[in-house]
Write a structure and sequence with these properties.
Elements lengths: L3 E3 L2 E3 L9 E6 L5 H12 L6 E3 L11 E3 L2 H9 L3 E7 L2 E6 H8 L6 E3 L2 H10 L3 E7 L2 H8 L6 H14 L8 E4 L3 H14 L1
Parallel strand pairs: 3-8, 3-9, 4-5, 9-10
Antiparallel strand pairs: 1-2, 4-7, 6-7
Length: 194
């Protein structure tokens, strides 16, 4: 692990390349989306266009398109959707245009992804930094308590999260998310260190 952030302390071993993209992974309720949105709003990162089959209550994120399974598979066959992944009973995929922009380094992107996908993106995107966001279980349970997802869906996702923790050691940064200000401070320090 090249870079580690534990609570408020950042130990940095800088890479010789310029950071262009950020991949974020971690457990449900750890603060991944808060970090992602902050990088978009404060540091002008782009979010890739995403196609998904899961119903979402709050589609504040304009980069997300809800489609049926049939539409998703058609879009994949037409090379509109790339990197399809199944999580639970739902399909997710990026627009091919977004992936091509990231590969060509036309824009800087932030990807909020499952751990394996994050490492895959890191391995193919030049200038990509990986961040694992962690919060203790009590904090995560408190954060997801009021979400609209069904309780059994949350429990399944939390169980999968525990199994995927094995990937954490391969991430550049491991960050302990305590509150929104710690997330914002961490993001600012990552950007400043590059």
């Amino acid at each position: 692990m090249l870079m580690v952030c534990v609570t408020q302390h950042l130990v940095v071993n800088l890479r010789s390349r310029f950071m262009k993209h950020v991949v974020i992974s971690g457990h449900l309720g750890s603060g991944k989306t808060t970090l992602e949105r902050y990088l978009v709003q404060k540091h002008n990162f782009l979010q890739p266009d995403i196609f998904l089959t899961r119903n979402i209550d709050d589609n504040m994120d304009r980069h997300i398109s809800h489609v049926s399974c049939e539409e998703f598979f058609e879009l994949f066959q037409e090379n509109v959707v790339s990197m399809p992944m199944c999580f639970g009973e739902n399909w997710y995929g990026y627009s091919r245009k977004s992936i091509m922009k990231a590969l060509n380094c036309d824009s800087k992107f932030v990807f909020n992804v499952r751990p394996y996908t994050g490492l895959l993106l890191k391995s193919i995107l030049d200038g990509c930094v990986s961040v694992w966001v962690h919060a203790d279980k009590e904090t995560r349970v408190d954060r997801i308590e009021n979400r609209s997802e069904m309780k059994d869906t949350q429990e399944k996702r939390m169980e999968l999260d525990e199994n995927e923790s094995v990937y954490k050691s391969l991430y550049d940064f491991v960050f302990e998310s305590t509150d929104q200000s710690s997330i914002k401070s961490f993001a600012d320090r990552i950007i400043a260190s590059q």
